[in-house]
Write a structure and sequence with these properties.
Largest sheet: 12 strands, mixed
Structural class: alpha+beta
Strand order of the largest sheet: 1-2-3-4-5-12-6-11-10-9-8-7
CATH topology of the largest domain: Aminopeptidase
Strand content: 25-35%
Order of helices and strands: EHHHEEEHEHEEHHHEEEHEHE
Amino acid sequence: MSVSIRPIIPEKDAADIAELVKTSFRPWLDRENMEYLSSLRDEGLYAERHPLLSRFSSFPYKLEGVVCRDHDGKLLGLINSYDFSLNDEPCSLLANICVHPSRRHEGIASRMLDEIEKIRRAKGTHSFFLQARLEKPAVIRFYREHGFRVTDYRETWVLPQRKDRTEPYAGGLRSGPVPRSDMRSFETLLKKAYPLSVLWNLDCRRDLFQPGIAAEIRNRIGSVSDCFRRITDPDERILAWAAYQKHSGFADTLWLIPNEGLSAAEYGSVLKYLGSDFIHGKAVRIDIAAGKYTDPLRSAGFVHMQTLAWMWKKL
């Protein structure tokens, strides 16, 4: 098999990467994803047509990982890698792992995984994370064969944008900022709801989930001091904690941490309250452990989007 696998060169690979990702993941791409890929393709084509100008300017999109091309230069495969730190240990998230449909089952994905692990290991990375869709058991099995194990199964639910969400929830619930005296309880429940095997991939600022004076100052400067909420019932009993993050994309993110012993009915009441009083118009995404609170989520208007196996490998 005459192919070559090498690190990504953004100026040379961006346009082809955008097209391969579209081909491989089209059923799961939302409007925001498609807009990003279109822009990535345009920037890549510009760099290809104006190599001298591109040489004197940095490519606007950060692209790291490996690609596989055949002897004619056609892009056959891709793995993006994103570096992050977990407990001060360098780690890498592997994403957009794909092979062109015409060249699958030829060992290309295996060779790319071996290459990206070799490259990242040389730079001190020994932990790798990735996601696989539950409806693709053969893909999960493939990653297991390459040393990955499932750390959790997570479901993504989305509360669609509704302009008529104006009536307050009449259940007597209230929300307010988390007092500093309760931050330790918040942190304990957060780590139980989102263990480190999951927390690594939360789409968030790292300091958002680091209670303490320094983090509080950073959050206040970043205008997110109101993101931590404590939801109580009419008797002032704490039902749940929440962190709400605004994003530029189609949906904001809600991290909901139910208090211990919270019933499904109470969980549903919290969701309905948040959907009416705390969330203002924009679509909202929530990730929870698979199979939990399905009925309350549906009754609160959330729509199930996907279930993912979150996987980890330690070299």
